[in-house]
Every structure is written in C-alpha cells, then in structure tokens.
Amino acid sequence: MAYLTIFHWGMMLSATYTYGSKIDYSGDGSVLFSNIRQAPGTPLHYWQNLHLGDTVQPHDQFPLLKRGQTYAFQMSAQVDPEDSVAVNIVFLDDNNHIIDQHLVQSLTGSFTMPEIVDSYRIELLNINNKQLHFFAFYLSEIDAMRSLEIEELLSGNLLHVHDYTKPVGREMVVLRHRVPTEIIDLGEVSDQYYLRVPARILDNDDGLHKLMADAYRVLHLNNASDLNWRAMTSETEKAMHIFQNFFRDEK
C-alpha cells in the first residue's frame, strides 16, 4: 500500500526563521510568512526527523524513507515573487553531519534517498522572497505521486486525493488531524476524501456538526449513498457515525 505524507507548518519556533519575521498562523492551518531582510539561501522553515536536543523534538510520524527509493513532492503555497522559495533536501549521517543535498527551485520535484544515510531534513529556502502563504507540503513515492491529483477542499480539514489508476469509487476516511505531519494510506478506489478532525472537537458534538456542515457544503455530492466510510482509528469512530447520520439526513 502506498502512503502520502502531509507536512504542516507547526508552531515550533525552533524550526522557523523568526528573527525579524512576520508570521501569521491562520485558523485554517495555513501560515503567512514574510521577512524581506532574511539572507537569501537560508531556510525560512524546515522539518527534520532527528532528535536535536532537549529543546528541539523530532516531528511526530515523520516518514522513514527507503534508501535508494525515489520520492516526489509538491507544495501547496502562494509565493511572491514567483520561484522565490526553493526546496532543499538535506541528507545526514548519524552525527547530524551533511552527507549530500538536493536543491529544487520549484514547488514540485523529486529526489532519491542515498544508499548511505541516517536521517534527512526538508528545508524551505528563501530566494529573495517577499511573502509566502503556505498551506501544505505533500510527499510520496514517485510512482504513487505520478497518478495523484491532490486538492484541499477545506484547508487543513478535508483533503481530496484522486488517483486515475484506481477503480472508480469514493471513500470518506475520518482521522484525527495531526500537526506538523500526517501519514495517510492511499486507498483502493479512485476518490479518497480525508476528513481530519482536530483533537479539540473529537468529543464536541457541536464542533463535529459544524465541521461536517462545512465539508458537506464544499463536497457537492449529488448522491452520497455510494460513499464508503472508514475511521482511521477507534478515537474517530464516534465522529464518523455523526458524519454518516448528517449525510443521511441531508440527502
């Protein structure tokens, strides 16, 4: 089974260039970053799976990438000016020393994990950037990513993944929203909808109903009777049943 990793811009300041920066965290999970005085070529944000000490913790659910495997990424963002943010993949040994780097001056690209590597870091580099509005960064094996169309219908909450190589079908997967990284399994039908429920409303019926109303509004499903449902974990089963009842009542 193939997986898609979603990287969010969390509020861990140690992973963000903060000196002189203006950083706005939006309610939809996106982040607006600007710092015209930041030196070009330096990271404005990064994700790393290596424990760096007591004050910097490794990211939860950080994907373990296979050595020798090629991966593809795409970033959902608005960049001003165009091409003023680059993606740099840094490969590290067990002493956190740089083995190699792979720079891509685009919001989409690919890289191959070296045969000898202990960990890695994903950096967003400032290339004379004036403003970045960041939504999400997606990563998967290149063969899986080639056939995917990814769309955030509700930023941070409802993700639609279309795979034109899969049999026609629709599935709604209910899962807990995790920041800064999420790993989701790509199902066996063409259209997967991932409804990510914030932890703060998992036991809040009013919050769940509001989230489902927002999701229903943007889905535009003429017929929801053939929509399969799946809860990713037991903690989201209650939310799934509330959502199912909402869809049934709205039909």
Chain-wise SSE layout:
Layout: E1 3-7, E2 22-25, E3 31-34, E4 43-48, E5 70-80, E6 85-92, E7 98-104, E8 108-112, E9 119-126, E10 131-141, H1 142-145, E11 148-154, E12 158-163, E13 170-176, E14 181-185, E15 191-197, H2 205-219, E16 227-231, H3 237-250
Helix pairs in contact: 2-3
**What is the level-2 CATH architecture name of the largest domain?**
Sandwich
Largest sheet: 7 strands, antiparallel
What is the top-level CATH class of the largest domain? Mainly Beta
Structural class: mainly beta
Mean pLDDT: 91
Poorly predicted sequence stretches spanning 5 or more consecutive residues? 51-59
Measured as a percent range, the helix fraction is 10-25%
**How many domains in all?**
2
Gyration radius, in Å: 19 Å
**Helical stretch tally:** 3
SSE order in H/E notation? EEEEEEEEEEHEEEEEHEH
Shape: globular
Structure summary, number of beta strands: 16
Beta-strand content bin: 35-45%
Distance between the termini: 33 Å
* CATH fold assignment of the largest domain: Jelly Rolls
Question: Can you put this structure into words, describing what you see?
Answer:
With 251 residues, the chain is mainly beta. It has two domains: 3-141, Jelly Rolls (Sandwich), CATH 2.60.120; 147-250. 13% of the residues lie in helices and 42% in strands. The strands form three sheets. Strands 1, 2, 3, 5, 8, 10 and 14 form a seven-stranded antiparallel beta sheet that branches. Strand 11 (148-154) and strand 12 (158-163) form a beta hairpin. The chain is globular and about 55 Å long. It starts with a strand and ends with a helix.
